[in-house]
Specification:
The complex is a heterodimer.
Chain A lengths: L1 H16 L2 E14 L2 E14 L3 E5 L6 H8 L7 E6 L2 E2 L7 E4 L11 H12 L4 H13 L15 H13 L5 E5 L7 H18 L2 E5 L3 H7 L2 E6 L4 E7 L15 H15 L5
Chain B lengths: L16 H7 L9 H23 L10 H47 L1 H16 L6 H8 L3 H25 L3 H9 L4 H38 L5 H10 L3 H29 L5
Helix pairs in contact in B: 3-4, 3-6, 3-8, 3-10, 5-6, 6-8, 7-8, 8-9, 8-10, 9-10
Classes of the chains: A alpha/beta, B mainly alpha.
The structure holds adenosine-5'-triphosphate (ATP) and magnesium ion (MG).
């Protein structure tokens, strides 16, 4: 009860002093394939405020990737409305950076050229921005590797390149679909910390997808729980750790453990098919 | 199977081959057992024909001795073979690039406009499966016997194989890469040049190899059917005179042409595609 009151309070506060960046209203997505149609998303509505870190969790196939793809302009919706800072998705692509599940680098481009890709596509490949690209490569710890090709880098390094690429055009919104799912636990923790650092310093709005309740509780301010067939949002869960608390020490904090247990119990029932 | 014993498929171009070769330079030797074996087979076959057939008194006009084919080639090279080689080469060098450009362009359009592709895909496969040499008599009827006819034949023969390969090349760009470009609001042309074209390049090179070989086959066929020039014509002409040595010499040149084209395109491919997926 106390928790709910607190989350309500936070929501009210949020509405007061945080402007809405992503607004999704009654979103529907139906995939038509040769074998029939799949109702992937049904009446999905949510908003994400400026600077918020929201994580989507839910059973496989509930439509998390589909939501991110629609918000990121990678997929057309069937019905409903999606606004990015009050504008249509197609008009706001400079605002969006995507970190994919696999590094998704272009193998014929060097590390530096991969990071420069968004600048080339958006037509902003200026000397200042190129400097920014080099700074970002340094930020993710890959200075000196600029001329290496992706197949000469480890999986963790490639994913770091993916982070730098998503940030190079200075988007205000980051979309991440299980970005570190394929990496080992330690590398994943390191990259999670890196994401927190970027979130804290650069005030990005982040939409994140993960299958790990621990990662969701550790990283985000709010967890959106989904269920499947059709994909729907069933719960908004507020996590109240402050930015300062989110260090590796939090992982052994009893409050963190309690919270993960709560969230796990909460979403457990939606995983039953 | 270990890396060493794996045999390459004839028309496929393995990705990142150039790179790997460079890295494994030390382990890459010319004097291997297999290469020695290949040379021994060659020598064996040549010697068998050279002496075995003489021993069994096979007449020269059925199977000439390798030595006499060779001396025949050398003796008549500048006088007889070279001019005809030039004729064949010219027809290929004009017809093939034209066919390749058409094949590439049509493939690019079809892979960009999916509904168009769906409408015409049946015809494309029909075209790719038709031996274009069947068109030669009709083209001769329309355009007469001459270089133009043959250039057009080469063009028509070389574009379907490249087109089919290029389409599957462009379509081989993964959905994830396309998502990357879509997330940046990339234009059609940007996505094509930066992702689809380069993703498809290895398959396109296989298509180029396939296409020049088919073009050569079809051109030689066309030279059989009409006209009085080209290496194909020489084969036919000297066979009719029972001058088998001359025929074989021309065949040798045709083989050399095919192998050279294959090697040149393959080497360019390996030089261009330095990355591996
Ligand atoms: N391109 C597509 N064509 C047809 N159906 C699709 C396509 N993409 C997704 N779907 C379907 O839509 C539903 C939601 O898929 P989505 O990938 O968004 O799920 P998800 O929550 O990301 O799952 P996971 O956790 O496994 O990544 C699934 O039933 C899936 O089969
Ligand atoms: Mg997914």
């Amino acid at each position: 009860m106390g928790l709910q009151a607190a989350s309500l309070k936070k929501e009210v506060e949020g509405e007061k002093n945080r402007e809405t960046v992503v607004e999704v209203k009654h979103l529907e997505k139906i995939f038509t394939t040769l074998r029939g149609s799949i109702h992937a998303l049904h009446d999905v509505s949510f908003t994400v405020s400026k600077g918020e870190f929201v994580t989507f969790v839910g059973p496989s196939g509930c439509g998390k990737t589909t939501i991110l793809r629609i918000v990121g302009g990678m997929l057309d919706k069937t019905d409903g409305e999606v606004f990015i800072k009050g504008k249509y998705v197609k008009e706001s692509q400079k605002e969006i950076g995507v970190i994919f599940q696999s590094p998704n680098l272009l193998p014929w481009r060097t590390l530096l050229k991969n990071v420069l890709l968004p600048l080339e596509v958006l037509g902003i490949n200026t000397p200042e921005n190129q400097k920014r690209a080099r700074d970002l490569i340094e930020l993710v710890g890959l200075a000196g590797f600029e001329d290496k090709y992706p197949n000469e880098l480890s999986g963790g390094m490639q994913q770091r390149v993916g982070i730098a690429r998503a940030l190079v055009h200075n988007p205000s919104i980051l979309l991440m679909d299980e970005p570190f799912g394929a990496l080992d636990a330690i590398t994943r923790e390191q990259l999670d910390m890196e994401i927190l650092r970027i979130w804290g310093q650069a005030k990005k709005t982040i939409m994140f997808v993960t299958h790990s309740v621990e990662e969701a509780v550790f990283l985000s301010e709010r967890i959106i729980v989904m269920r499947t067939k059709p994909g729907e949002i069933v719960k908004n869960e507020i996590i109240e750790f402050s930015m300062e608390e989110r260090t590796l020490n939090l992982l052994t904090d009893p409050r963190y453990l309690k919270k993960t247990r709560e969230v796990r119990n909460l979403i457990g029932k939606y995983y039953q098919m | 199977m270990s890396e060493k014993t794996k045999t390459d498929y004839f028309f496929t171009l393995k990705l990142g081959e150039g790179k790997k070769k460079k890295r494994e330079k030390k382990g890459h030797r010319i004097f291997t057992k297999e290469n020695a074996g290949a040379i021994l087979i060659f020598i064996g076959v040549v010697l068998t024909i050279e002496y075995g057939f003489t021993f069994f008194k096979v007449p020269e006009w059925i199977i000439p001795k390798p030595s006499s084919i060779f001396s025949c080639l050398v003796a008549n090279f500048w006088q007889i073979f070279f001019p005809q080689l030039l004729v064949t080469l010219k027809e290929l060098f004009i017809g093939f690039p034209l066919g390749a450009i058409i094949g590439f362009t049509v493939a690019a359009l079809l892979s960009e406009y999916k509904s168009l592709e769906k409408m015409v895909v049946v015809y494309i496969f029909a075209l790719a499966c038709t031996p274009t040499i069947v068109l030669v008599p009709i083209l001769i009827l329309w355009l007469g016997i001459g270089a133009t006819t043959r250039i057009i034949v080469v063009m028509i023969a070389s574009f379907p194989p490249l087109m089919v390969n290029a389409i599957s090349g462009f379509n081989s760009a993964s959905e994830l890469r396309l998502d990357l470009m879509r997330s940046l609001g990339a234009t059609r042309i940007q996505t094509f040049l930066k992702v689809k074209f380069l993703s498809g390049l290895p398959i396109i090179f296989s298509g180029l190899i396939l296409s020049i070989i088919i073009a050569l086959i079809t051109l030689i066929g066309a030279e059989f059917l009409g006209g009085a020039s080209g290496l194909g014509y020489l084969v036919l002409y000297y066979s009719s005179l029972l001058q088998t040595r001359m025929s074989f010499a021309a065949i040798l040149l045709i083989t050399a042409l095919g192998v050279s084209f294959y090697a040149i395109i393959r080497i360019i491919g390996i030089k261009v595609i330095t990355w591996s997926e």
